[in-house]
Amino acid sequence: MKTTIWVVGASGRVGRALKTSLKKNTDFKVIATGREVDITKLDEIEQAIMVYRPNAIVNCASISSTAYCEEHKVEAFGVNAIGARNLAVVSERNNIKIIQLSTDEVFSGVHNYPKNEFDTPTPDTVYGQSKLAGENFVRELNPKHLIIRSSWVYGEDWEDYVSIVLDHAKKGESFDAAVDRISSPTYMKRIVDFIIKMIPKEEYGLYHVASEGSCSRYQLATTILSLAGYDTKLAVPVSGANTNVVSTLLENLMMKITDVYQMPEWHVDLETYINSLKQEV
Questions:
Q1: Cα–Cα dist 85/260, whole Å
Q2: Distances, alpha carbon 207 to alpha carbons 79, 87, 129, 190, 260, in Å
Q3: Side-chain-facing half-sphere of 20: CA atoms under 13 Å
Q4: Lateral strand order in the sheet of 205-208
Q5: For the chain, which ranges sit under pLDDT 70?
Q6: Which pLDDT belongs to residue 186?
Q7: pLDDT tens readout for residues 31-63
Q8: How far is 77 from 21, CA to CA, in rounded Å?
Q9: CA 30 – CA 277 distance, rounded (Å)
Q10: Which of these, 91, 108, 95, lies nearest to 246 by C-alpha position?
Q11: What does the pLDDT look like over 83-132, one tens digit per residue?
Q12: Nearest residue to 63 via CA among 27, 114, 118, 105
C-alpha cells in the first residue's frame, strides 16, 4: 500500500519542490492542492480529508511576504495561523501526522547568537507572529506533529535571493546587499529530503532545518556572484539605519540530538546549486 501524502500549498516554492520530489518516489501517492481548498474554512478541510484520505499532511501554505503581512494582518493570521489550526484539528481527529512548515522569522534577530529549538521565539513582525501562532496551534492540537523551521531558502529559481542576485548580474546592474543581516542560506533540496525522510518516522516535535555556518546578505551575494562568474563588485555593501546586527541564525540542535539527518555547510550546497544552474544553460 502506498502512503498518501497531502501537500497543502503546493503552488508555493516549498510545496512545488516537495510535490515534484514526492512524485518520483513510488512509495507515495501525492495529493497536491493550492487555493482550491481554503484552509481557513474548517468544513473544506473536513471534506478534503474524506476525499483524499491522507496518511500525512504537509502544510506548506503561507503568506510569506513580510511587507504584505504588515498591511494585511487579518489575512496573514487567517492563513498562517487559523489555516494551520484547522489542519491540526482535522488531522488529529483522523489520526493523521501533520508536518507544519515555519520560519526563522519567529525570532526577532535582536540577539546575535544561533537560536535552537529550545529558545523562546520573540517575533516582531506580523509574519513572524502569525507563523508562531500556527506553530502553537499545531503543537497544542495534534500530538502527531512535526514543525520545521528553516532560513533563507533558495533552490526553486523563483523569487528567491539567488535568482534575484543572478538577475541583477545578467543585466550588469549593481544592487544593495545588507552587511548587518545574518542567517544561513538553505538549499530547498535539503528541506525536501528531510521532510520525505521524516514522513514515515514516528518522530515528532520541532526541528530546525538550516545549513550549517552563517553569512550576511552581502557575503551571500558576493559568493553567488563569484561562483556564477560575475563581478562581485555588483553587490554594494549597505547597513540599515539601526546599527545593530539582525541575526535569525538557526542551530539544528534537535537534528544533532536525534541524529536523524545532517545538514552541510551553506557554501557547499550553494556551489552545488550554482553548478546545476550552469549545466542547465
A1: 27
A2: 22, 19, 18, 13, 11
A3: 11
A4: 28-33, 3-8, 56-59, 97-103, 145-150, 205-208
A5: 157-158, 241-243, 281
A6: 97
A7: 999 999 999 999 999 999 999 999 999 999 999
A8: 29
A9: 27
A10: 108
A11: 999 999 999 999 999 999 999 999 998 888 899 999 999 999 999 999 99
A12: 105
* Amino acid letter, residue 210: A
Dmax of the chain from CA atoms?
A: 57
The 10 Å Cβ neighbour count of residue 168 is 18
Grid cell at residue 265: 555547510
* Tally of residues, the chain: 281
Rounded CA separation 121/132 (Å): 8
- pLDDT given at position 202: 93
Residues 127, 143: Cα–Cα separation, whole Å:
24
Strand, coil or helix: 58? strand
Q: Contact 56/199 with Cβ under 8 angstroms? A: yes
Specify whether the CB–CB gap between 6 and 58 falls below 8 A: yes
Q: Are 20 and 13 in contact (CB under 8 A)?
A: no
Give me 116's grid cell.
Answer: 535552537
Indicate the residue type of 254: M
| The residue to which cell 512545488 is assigned | 16
Q: CA–CA separation, 102 vs 207, rounded Å?
A: 10
**What are the residues whose beta carbons fall under 8 Å from the beta carbon of 57, sequence distance 6 or more?**
5, 6, 8, 87, 91, 96, 97, 98, 99
Residue entry with cell 535582536: 110
All three cell numbers of 199: 514522513
Cα gap 158→179, rounded to integer Å: 24
What's the DSSP call for residue 104? G
End-to-end Cα, the chain, rounded Å: 40
